[in-house]
Design brief:
The chain is an alpha+beta fold. Helix content is about 50%, strand content about 15%. The strands form 3 sheets. Strands 1-2 form a two-stranded antiparallel sheet. Strands 3-4 form a two-stranded antiparallel ribbon. Strands 5-6 form a two-stranded antiparallel ribbon.
Length: about 240
């Protein structure tokens, strides 16, 4: 619990920076946690493109393999790129000191990101990169302005180019972002990329609360028990009070 609280405290400041006091339109992620094939694809994409910098260190390889019905051998051979054991936490390999030097701050752990920000935020963020030559990595983000992260999925999506419009704010002529041209140069079509981002988002939603599916299944059993208990209690009440009436 202490580690989870620390992770939340770490993420909240960046959440405030991302909000920036402006309302951002978020697309609906439509994540389906019952689609284990999608969750496994999300795990695959996360391990390939995200795990070099970001960890999910409150999650274990073995738990993921069990929940997503992945064999131990497949987990080791396909999704574990370090010498970690299957029972280990899903740490990344980049030293925090080096990460802070290269990116300005260590990349945050993402175990709880979907729970802190929401699935729609994660989904929209991964779709929100666009070309911006003023930024260190040549990209900016509509959901998280002035983001320090490169667009790691650029080879899949390509890169969108912004549309600006001149306007006058407080007497000063300013260029305002009004829209985006469709991304070009990616390996995936728009629909394919949407699905890939939905898969990653689904995996992060699962990682934030692995017990969610188990809890939902247990909930139906609890409701069933309460229903049966209600019938028994009602019949008992009628039997107890029949002589009184």
């Amino acid at each position: 619990m202490k580690k989870l609280l620390i992770a939340l405290v770490t993420l909240l400041p960046s959440l405030a920076m991302a909000a920036g006091g402006n309302e951002v339109h978020l697309e609906s992620a439509n994540v389906n946690l019952h689609d284990k094939a999608s969750l496994e694809r999300g795990l695959d994409l996360f391990q390939q493109y995200c795990s070099g910098c970001h960890s999910t260190k409150y999650q274990r390889y073995e738990r993921v393999a069990t929940d997503l019905e992945i064999s131990g051998d497949d987990m080791r051979n396909k999704y574990m790129f370090t010498d970690a054991k299957i029972g280990d936490l899903m740490e990344n390999a980049i030293p925090p000191v080096d990460a802070a030097k290269w990116f300005g701050a260590p990349p945050p752990d993402l175990t709880l990101v979907a729970r802190v920000r929401g699935a729609d935020w994660v989904y929209s963020y991964l779709k929100g990169f666009y070309a911006d030559e003023t930024r260190p990595f040549g990209v900016n983000n509509t959901v998280f302005p002035l983001v320090a992260m490169p667009h790691v999925l650029q080879d899949l999506q390509g890169v969108a180019t912004p549309q600006y419009e001149k306007t006058v704010i407080d007497g000063v002529e300013t260029m305002v972002l009004v829209g985006m041209n469709p991304p070009t140069g990616g390996k995936m079509s728009a629909d394919e990329y949407d699905q890939a981002v939905r898969d990653i988002t689904g995996f992060l939603v699962y990682s934030a609360e692995p017990v969610q599916l188990e809890r939902e299944a247990l909930g139906w059993w609890v409701l069933g028990f309460l229903f049966i208990f209600f019938i028994i209690a009602y019949l008992l009440k009628k039997e107890y009070w029949k002589d009184v009436h």
